[in-house]
Amino acid sequence: MRMNTLYAALSGAFLLGAATLAPAQTSNAPAGSTTAHPVKNAEVSASSDYRAQKKQIDDAYKADKASCKSMSGNAKDVCQKEAKAKEKIAKADLEAQRKGTPHAQYEAAKTKAEQNYDVAKEKCEDQKGADKTACKKQAKADEDKAIADAKSSRDSMASNTPARSTTPPAPAKTPSGK
Q1: Burial classification of residue 109, based on how many CB atoms lie within 10 Å of its CB (0-12 exposed, 13-18 middle, 19 or more buried)
Q2: Among 18, 84, 106, 160, which one is most buried in terms of CB atoms within 10 A?
Q3: How far apart are CA 90 and CA 57, in angstroms?
Q4: pTM for this one?
C-alpha cells in the first residue's frame, strides 16, 4: 500500500512539474532579450568557426601575456592588464556577433569601456599626487561617457524596432460620418 501511495505522489509531482514547464517553453522572448534566436545561437556556438575564433582569442591572450614576462614594475602590470582587456573585449564582441541583439551589442560596448578604464587606471599608477588623481578622474569620466553612449545606442536601436501592439485597431469610420 505504501509503494502505491509513493508512486502516485511521485507521478503527480512529475506531471505537475511538466505542466508548469510547458507554457514556459512556448513563451515568446521579450523585445531586447538575449535569447532572441536560441536555436540559431546554439547552432553558432556549436559551429567550428565559432570555436576556432574563441581558440584564436585564447591563443592571442597567451601570446600577449607571455610577451609581458620580460617587463618589470608597472610596465609589466600595464602589459598584463592590456592583454586581459584585449581578450575580454574580443570575447564580448564574439558573443555580441553570435547573439545579434541590441542588448548583446550594449554588453560588448560596456565591456570595452570597463576594460579600457582598468587599463587607464593602471597607467595612472606611474604618476604621483595631483597628476595621478586627475588621471584617474579622467579615466572614470571616459568610462562613464562610453557607457552612456552605449546605453543611448542600445535605446535608439530598441526604439527603431517595431513594437507589437496589444490593442486592437480602431474601427474604421463610415463615409456618412456615423
Answers
A1: buried
A2: 106
A3: 7
A4: 0.64
